UniProtKB/TrEMBL annotation:
Matches recorded under InterPro entries: At1g61320/At1g61330-like, LRR_At1g61320_AtMIF1
Pfam families assigned: LRR_At1g61320_AtMIF1 (PF23622)
Protein name (record): At1g61320/AtMIF1 LRR domain-containing protein
Residue ranges constituting the At1g61320/AtMIF1 LRR domain according to the UniProt record: 11-157
Organism superkingdom: Eukaryota
């Protein structure tokens, strides 16, 4: 298992990732607009079975060209079975990320969508505030409306 916080890490398309041949579970906290970083980690982890993406919406890097932020090479993955997306907000990048995983994770069995940023320590809904709880509610509705129908019936779709 490997847990990495790569929020604020600049994207370098020429960087060669080491192979994580024995890695079975990967947790990445990343900016919500960086699909390229995700594809690099997927390619470097050929035996990955579980992927948890913690999407950080607070930090955006507008100086990075959009074509680099959204660059997603096709990389078929043959062992990834479970994907959990935490901090889902229903933005274009969120939908794009899920569809990238559906298309490239050939053994995918389950996708879990969780709009609550669980890496933040909030004991209860009350502590998150009404505005945050409302964002989570809208994100759940968005996931059901815009993702559930796009995910093949062979993949279990769970929205928390």
């Amino acid at each position: 298992m490997l847990k990495l916080d790569i929020v604020g890490v600049d994207c370098n398309q020429n960087h060669v990732f080491p192979k994580f041949a024995n890695l079975k579970q990967l947790e990445l906290q990343l900016r919500e607009d960086y699909l390229y970083n995700l594809s690099c980690f997927m390619k470097a982890s050929p035996n990955l079975q579980r992927l948890v993406l913690k999407l950080d919406e607070a930090i955006m890097m507008p100086h990075v060209p959009r074509e680099i932020r959204n660059y997603t090479p096709k990389s078929p993955h043959h062992h990834l079975k479970v994907v959990e997306i935490v901090g889902y907000r229903g933005r274009k990048g969120d939908v794009q990320r899920v569809m990238y995983l559906v298309k490239n994770a050939l053994a995918l069995e389950k996708i879990v969508i969780d709009p609550v940023p669980r890496w933040c320590v909030w004991p209860s809904e009350k502590d998150r505030g009404a505005e945050e709880v409302e964002k989570e509610k809208k994100a759940r509705e968005h996931a059901v409306q815009h993702l559930k129908g796009k995910v093949p019936s062979t993949i279990e779709f769970v929205c928390l």
